[in-house]
Amino acid sequence: MHETRKNLSTIGISKQRNKHPIKKISTRPAMFQRVFTSNFRNVSLLSRLWNGSNGVLAGKHAEQKMISILRDRFPQAQLIEVTDVSGGCGAMFDINVVAPEFKGLNTVKQHRIINEVLKEEIKDMHGLRIRTSIPQL
């Protein structure tokens, strides 16, 4: 038994009987708490993984939904493009809108309108790139 304790101590495992070596691994319980709570920002990604849905369909569905919402808000838009740039998992999108409704608004205000219109869709995303402009005559 003395020989076993000596071998364990040489590889860095505690000699004390009441300590379990695995407990040393869980130094960040807050990280695990974030992953398993409903406040986790990527719940949609986790739910797709757990439910067996592939990300490509989810990303394409999200693209179509956002295009539909933007078409309703900007009926005179000359161009509305929504592209999943995260490889199909739906975490990052590129949005391009060319609409006369932006006339007289600076870029920040234009982007705020897009953010407000897509507020529900954006909340579970990692990122969003927005490009807006006014149609050229």
What does this structure look like?
This protein has 137 residues and is an alpha+beta fold. It has a domain at 54-133: BolA-like (GMP Synthetase, Chain A, domain 3, 2-Layer Sandwich), CATH 3.30.300.90. The chain is built from six helices and three strands; from the N terminus they run ααααββααβ. It has a three-stranded mixed sheet with strand order 1-2-3. A hairpin with a 7-residue loop joins β1 (79-84) and β2. It starts with a helix and ends with a strand.
**Architecture (CATH level 2) name of the domain at 54-133:** 2-Layer Sandwich
CATH superfamily of the domain at 54-133: BolA-like
Category from helices, strands and their pairing: alpha+beta
Mean pLDDT figure:
75
CATH fold-type name of the domain at 54-133: GMP Synthetase, Chain A, domain 3
**What is the share of helical residues?**
40-55%
Biggest sheet, strands in spatial order?
Answer: 1-2-3
- Write the element-wise H/E pattern from the N-terminal end onward: HHHHEEHHE
* Distance from first to last alpha carbon: 88 Å
Strand content: 5-15%
Q: Look at the structure and give the CATH class of the domain at 54-133.
A: Alpha Beta
> What quaternary form is this?
single chain
Number of strands: 3
- Low-pLDDT sequence parts: 31-41, 47-57
Integer-rounded radius of gyration: 25 Å
* Approximate shape: globular
Family: Belongs to the BolA/IbaG family.
GO cellular component, one term: mitochondrial matrix
Organism: Pogonomyrmex barbatus (red harvester ant)
Pfam families: BolA (PF01722)
